[in-house]
Amino acid sequence: MRGSRPFELEMTLHGEHFEFHAAPLRSMQKGWVCSLHNITVRKQTQDMLQRRAFHDVLTQLPNRAYFRDHLQRAYLRSKSEADYRFAALFIDMDSLKSINDKWGHDAGDQALMQFARRLESSIRPGDLAARLGGDEFAVFIDGVADEDRARQVATRIRDALAQPFKLPGDAEVHTTASIGMALAGALTADVDALLRNADQAMYRVKQRGGNGFEMFGEEILTDVKPQ
After folding, report:
1. Is 135 noted as a catalytic residue in this protein?
2. To 5 degrees, how large is the angle CA 65–CA 71–CA 79?
3. Which of 92, 127, 135, 199 does the annotation list as catalytic?
4. Is residue 123 within 8 Å of 170, Cβ to Cβ?
5. Residue 49, pLDDT score
6. Angle of helix 191-207 relative to helix 64-80, nearest 10 degrees?
7. Straight-line distance from the first to the last Cα atom of the chain, in angstroms, rounded to the nearest whole number
8. What is residue 195's predicted lDDT score, i.e. its pLDDT?
9. Which of the chain's ends, N or C, has fewer CB atoms near its CB within 10 Å?
10. Within 13 A of 121's CA, how many CA atoms are on the CB side?
11. Residues contacting 42, CB < 8 A, separation 6+
12. Long-range contacts (CB closer than 8 Å, 24 or more residues apart) made by 109-112
């Protein structure tokens, strides 16, 4: 306030957000006119709308738009850092339709939320799990040195699904997943191509009965049939 120009800023005090405006007096008497507005509700509304724009409402995972943007930033990084690589997993729940048909859509939603939590627990910090829509999920794997890293994540996801899902009314169901994997590299011109590659690998697993994972461009890596 040593200067003579108006200014404004935002501040946080005791967990609430405020907007501070200050302007010098235009009179013979020197001084400032200041106002402080509580904008906590506005900030909370903005944060909520921002989250809804980029997160799935049901599972609270990032949505397709957020995931694609995340891939795009990783793709740009790979262009400037020759040694940086990443991978994408395209994941489809094998039995959501049967859960919905037998137990109802509320039970299907419960299964989706539990599936999302198990995905999150199967990845390391720096990786990202997302729900693309319906029973389709995806995982971004950061800093992949080789294909083994993608296989490790796919194995952990498969193992995490081995435990039954708890449904309302103490019901339990088992579900599996079809997982397609693709590494960013010579075969991927952009992030959309990377997702298509992972999707194609997932579809091949689906055609073989599900409950497995496959790397794009290779033969099936794991194909464990449901018991």
Report:
1. yes
2. 145
3. 135
4. no
5. 65
6. 120
7. 73
8. 92
9. C
10. 10
11. 17
12. 109/58, 110/165, 110/166, 110/167, 110/168, 111/165, 111/167, 111/173, 111/175, 112/58, 112/59
